[in-house]
Every structure is written in structure tokens, then in C-alpha cells.
Design goal:
2 copies of one chain form a homodimer. Chain A has 194 residues and is mainly alpha-helical. The first copy, chain A, folds into 2 domains: 1-50, Homeodomain-like (Arc Repressor Mutant, subunit A, Orthogonal Bundle), CATH 1.10.10; 54-190, Tetracycline Repressor, domain 2. Chain A contains 10 helices and no strands. Chain A has helices at residues 2-25, 32-38, 43-49, 53-73, 82-99, 101-111, 118-125, 129-140, 149-168, 176-190. In chain A, α4 crosses α6 (101-111). The longest helix of chain A is centred in the N-terminal third of the chain and has 24 residues, at 2-25. The first copy, chain A, is elongated, with a radius of gyration of 19 Å. Chain A binds a DNA duplex (30 and 30 nucleotides) through α1 and α3.
Chain lengths: 194, 194
DNA sequence: AAAAAAAGAATGAACATTCATTTTTTATGT
DNA sequence: ACATAAAAAATGAATGTTCATTCTTTTTTT
């Protein structure tokens, strides 16, 4: 037990260091040696936990993505009405993106880069299903526009990534009011107009 | 004249090669030697045109960003009505993102990465002013929601980046109809509801 | 005492950048 | 026009560094 615990701690430290360094310097400028140093570990030790650098980054991606979706759906129940369900999920996602900034930044970087291999990317998408199901229900009930999931995502969820990035960069600081405005815009763009 | 022309051709070839390689392999996996090879030039020659790798990437970014905004505003006239002006600019941007896919992909990667230095990023934003002015006018006329430029951009323009990426990845193929839908969503999310 | 985990140093490849030469262009004098 | 010298541009090979990964030894756990 103690051994296993210790191992998990080290693995977590490595993943955390990877996120922080990749966020600040980019993949191209984060050597294994720095990751090791930040995690208080010898470079050689990394290879006890991960196959190589690519594997480390892939696994970090999958881990963070899983945290993200877990957070998003934590309080969601698939029997909720469509509108309420969407609002709930949207706000959880917003919460994650704006509070767990490090994690969200890392995902944004991975999602726009050939840094992650196709297989891990696929793996990362899996857990988004509840949202897709909700949208399907919304379309059937005539509450949500009959657009593809991709379009709905592009208009209602993806903008949060952009907002997160510029907030991190210090260009804006979203308060409660602005967040509510952002939510209304998101909803406007996907709800079926009467 | 002949000399200058030749130089510009080489510079362009280098920039083109940089875009293509960074798009396909990421910054971290595009060595100067490959860029040189793709541009049919010796590695040493790159340093006659650019200070170093960072400078090459920064200048490529600025160049592509300038192309992007030039394209976006090509047929826009600042005396147009707000709604028509927005539709025009939006559709030009969509055109650019979906047709000049290579260029747009490169920008997306740069914009979510510490690949580009802050100064060059600043430089790249400059040319967006006509759109910001249009929005200001729209807010004053009560046609556009009283949101910050960042929010308006996040909801009406940024989704195109996401759509472009998934189209490049082969997940969707936007036709005329879907593009019109996307436009309507964009407009819905920023227009003042009556 | 055996096995597992971790470490630091070593290895070899890849890479950005520079150097010494060669090729091409430009300017000059006839 | 033309030959030729100076200047500029371009090159391939060399340089020195950085880095991912592995090897051997040491420490910790069982």
C-alpha cells in the first residue's frame, strides 16, 4: 500500500510538472530533465512510469481530459430537462475552464497541435457522450436547433476555451455578470427560436 | 530587380515550408534542416533571411495574420450598415478559414501555444480594428449586444477556428447550407434581441 | 537476502547555428 | 558591349550544445 501510494504520488508529480512546463514553454521547450527536476525525481525515473516523452504527454492529456469531463458532469442527471441540463453542464465547464486554468490551458494547447497522437485524442473524446445525448434529446423535443453536434459544440462550448486563454493572458477578467452574459450567448446560439 | 525578386521568392518558400511542416509535425518536430530542404535551400541560407528559428516563426505568424485580415476586409466598406457589414466580414473570414486551410491551421496553432512571442502576437492583432469599430457602431445603434469585443469575438468569430480544425481533421465537411447555419448562429449570439 | 525502485552519469543522436568556400550578381573601366 | 574585379548570396560541412534515453550502481522495500 505504502509503495503503491508513493508511486502514484510520483506519477502525479510528473504529470503536474508536464502540464506546467508545457503550458509555460510549449512542448518543444520542455526537456525531460526539467520535468524530472520539477517533479523532484531523476530523469531515469520518468521511464519507470512512462515509455517515453510522447507517452508521458499522451497520458497526461488523457488524464486531464478525464478530469475535465468528470467535473463537467459531476452534478448532472440525465433525467433533467434539456434547458436546465445544458445550463448546468455549461456552467460546470465554465467553472473548470476558468478555475482549473492550468488544466484547461493544457487541453487547449493539445487540441490545436499535432502534439498528441490520434489514438489518445480519440480516447479523450469518449467521455463527452452525456452532452451529446442531451443535445440529441433537445433536438427531438424541438428545443435545440437541428445542427450537428460539432456545430453545437463550436458555438456553445468552444468559445469558453477562447475566453479562458485570454483571461489567462490577462486581457480580461470574467466576473459573475459577464459569465452569465456568456452563458446567454451560448444558449442563444443553439436554442430553437420560437 | 531580378535580385530582389529572387530573394523574395526564397523568403516566401521558407515561410511556406515553415507553415506546412509546423502544421503537420508541430513546432517541436520541425528542424531547420527540414525547412531548408522543403524550400530547396541550404540550412545556412535561412540565416540570411531570418535571425534564428524563433524569428522565422514569429515573422511567419505576422505574415499569415496580415494575409488573414487583408482577406477579411477586402470587400468591406466602413459605411455599410452594421448587419450587412458583419455578414460580409464573417463570410470572408469563413472563406479564408475553410479555403486557406493551411494558413488558418497555422494561426490556430500559434494562438494556443507559447510558440510565438508576446510582441509578435501584439503585432498580429493590430489589423483587426475595422471589425472592432463595426461592433462599436453596432452597440451604439442598439443592434449588437453590449458585450466586450472579446466576448463578441469568442462567440461569433472564434467558433470558425474550431470548425476549420475539425474539417481539416476530416470529421465534418461544411457545405453552403451548414455554413449559412453557422452564420445564423454567429449572428444570433451577438445581435440584440428585440 | 532478494527484489524493486530510484538515482546520477554516460551515450549517442539530433539539432540550431556558424564557418570557410564557392557561385552568382553587380559595378567599373576600357 | 565586354572583361574583370569587388561585393553579395548561397552553400555544404563543421561545431558545440542539448536532449531523450539507457546503463550501472545505490538505496529502499519486501
Amino acid at each position: 500500500m505504502a509503495k503503491l501510494q508513493k508511486s502514484i504520488d510520483k506519477r502525479n508529480a510528473l504529470i503536474k510538472a508536464t502540464i506546467e512546463l508545457v503550458n509555460n514553454n510549449g512542448f518543444h521547450a520542455t526537456p525531460m530533465s526539467k520535468i524530472a527536476k520539477m517533479a523532484n525525481v531523476s530523469p531515469a525515473t520518468i521511464y519507470l512510469y512512462f515509455e517515453n516523452k510522447q507517452d508521458l504527454v499522451n497520458q497526461t492529456y488523457i488524464e486531464v481530459k478525464a478530469e475535465y469531463t468528470k467535473y463537467a458532469f459531476k452534478t448532472y442527471d440525465k433525467n433533467m430537462p434539456v434547458k436546465a441540463g445544458f445550463e448546468l453542464i455549461w456552467k460546470r465547464i465554465a467553472d473548470f475552464k476558468l478555475k482549473e486554468c492550468e488544466n484547461a490551458m493544457f487541453l487547449a494547447q493539445c487540441d490545436n497541435t499535432p502534439m498528441i497522437d490520434a489514438h489518445s485524442r480519440q480516447e479523450g473524446i469518449k467521455h463527452l457522450q452525456p452532452l451529446l445525448d442531451l443535445w440529441e434529446r433537445g433536438r427531438q423535443e424541438g428545443i435545440i436547433k437541428p445542427l450537428s453536434n460539432y456545430l453545437l459544440y463550436a458555438y456553445s462550448i468552444n468559445p469558453l476555451s477562447f475566453l479562458m486563454i485570454i483571461q489567462k493572458r490577462g486581457d480580461i477578467q470574467l466576473n459573475k455578470v459577464q459569465l452569465e452574459e456568456a452563458y446567454q450567448s451560448a444558449w442563444s446560439s443553439i436554442k430553437q427560436c420560437e
